[in-house]
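Q: What would this chain look like folded?
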Amino acid sequence: MTDHPAVPDPTDLIALSLLPPGFGVRIAERLRSGQSGRDALRDLAAEQRSLCAEAPDALRARARDALARGRAMGLEPIGWDGASYPVALTTIIDPPPVLWVRGLIDSLNRHAVAIVGARAASPYGLSVAERLASDLALAGLVIVSGMARGVDSAAHRGALAVGGTTIAVLGSGVDVIYPPEHAQLARDIAAAGAVVSELVPGTLPLPQFFPLRNRIISGLCRAVVVIEAGEKSGSLITAKMALEQGRDVLAVPGNVLSGRNRGAHGLLRDGAKIVESADDILEELGMPATAPRPRGTTAAATDPILASLTPGEASDLDAISERTGLSPTRLLTRLFELELAGAVARVGGGKFVRLDSSC
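A: My prediction, written as structure tokens:
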């Protein structure tokens, strides 16, 4: 059994995490004021007896049980008072008193960008998410998402594909993988980064936990990139929280006819920066642009226009505009640049074709 002599006893902080969700801001206020976890738990339980049905001793008993179960699975909770607690999270209004981690704890304190979006994403949205994540990971950024179906999992896989680091924030216990078909993805993420949750081991993925975990996704990051978010998408909750936390919000434009991009386009109308490549994100963060890649691969790895084109298949401006959500005027400028870069060619009739690097 591994000893943990340098780690503060997290029992009281775990007990605080077992209080109802509405206690988050009050917990943070007390911890920031220098109050100990034990005293904060005692006072909050006394002040809010109508909301907190359990006495402090009962909460501590549950916390000790969770700690034993977690450590038996190789999980170590990082408390608010721990040296490894993510610095970025300490700046939000309601940071979790404890984070449970499986994977590389050091990954939680690196510069990160969140990529979030539709669960029922289109092939275009999945491709853009994966390629943006790949290029950002190659630039040294950690990719954060929620390991959901669709855009989230594509972003994780994009980072993993280039040997990058990625973090999955769950709306369940770290040991309860949801959706279940992402069990192998979770193992891959933990090997290259971390799977984290504020919820004690064994917690099931109940609906009320997912909006709460979104504040952690944005809180860990310098910026949030939204891809294919509908009007009621959970990704918009993440974007709203990011703005409240002072993070940058960016969005990828998409098809205006499908309806799955209305939320993202609303963000753009409200002033979110438009993302056409990883360089747009790096520029917003004040980081150097990505290094050029070999002919035929540079734009394909980062550009939504090329992601919408199939090598060898000619498409006209209207078709490309429908797939990307970009106006024909903006498209012409970008297509000209891509033509000069050797990534596309004009084939007559106002049509363009993507050049395959293998040709």
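Confidence is low (pLDDT under 50) at residues 1-6, 292-301.
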